[in-house]
Amino acid sequence: IAQQGVARLTVNRTNLHIYATVISGCGTKVIATASTAEAEIRQSLGGAGKGGNAAAAQIIGKRIAEKAKAAGVEKVAFDRAGFAYHGRVKALADAAREAGLQF
Predict the structure, then answer these.
(1) CA distances from 35 to 5, 26, 43, 74 (A)
(2) Angle ∠(93,16,94) on CA atoms, nearest 5
(3) Are 83 and 9 in contact (CB under 8 A)?
(4) What letter does residue 35 receive in the DSSP assignment?
(5) Cα(42)–Cα(39) distance, rounded to whole angstroms?
(6) C-alpha angle 54/78/60, rounded to 5°?
(7) Where are the alpha helices (DSSP H) in 1-103?
């Protein structure tokens, strides 16, 4: 999926949450993570179980881009892990692009 040396942004979604992880190019190190399961994000969304919508995905996209850029990663390969590029996955990707992550 990703070339050697290019960091990878992987996305996983469940009915209640969405998760984003930036993994190093060799696949051995997690550089940054963000998810709606984090307590801080859950509170801003209004409680548990509110992370299953496109608005929550946009927040996570922006947050993962900020964390990745803080770790020195500007370019990533997008890995949607078999999920259709639609709805929450697309919202997360668009928000990450707007926040400055390139893929």
Answers:
(1) 25, 23, 12, 20
(2) 10
(3) no
(4) E
(5) 5
(6) 35
(7) 39-45, 54-70, 88-98
| Residue 48 confidence (pLDDT) above 90 | no
Dihedral, 17, 29, 40, 79 alpha carbons, nearest 10: -30
Mean pLDDT of all residues in 17-39: 93
> What integer pLDDT is reported at residue 2 of this predicted model?
44
Rounded mean pLDDT of the chain?
Answer: 91
Cα separation, 45 vs 8, whole angstroms = 27
Query: Token pair for residue 22?
Result: 């930036």
Instruction: Name the phi and psi angles at 76, rounded to 5.
Output: -140, 160
Query: What is the predicted pLDDT for the residue at 28?
Result: 87
Q: What is the rounded distance in angstroms from the CA atom of residue 95 to the CA atom of residue 65?
A: 8
Q: pTM score, two decimals? A: 0.90
Residue 93 main-chain phi, psi, to 5 deg:
-65, -45
**Using the 8-state DSSP alphabet, how is residue 102 labeled?**
B
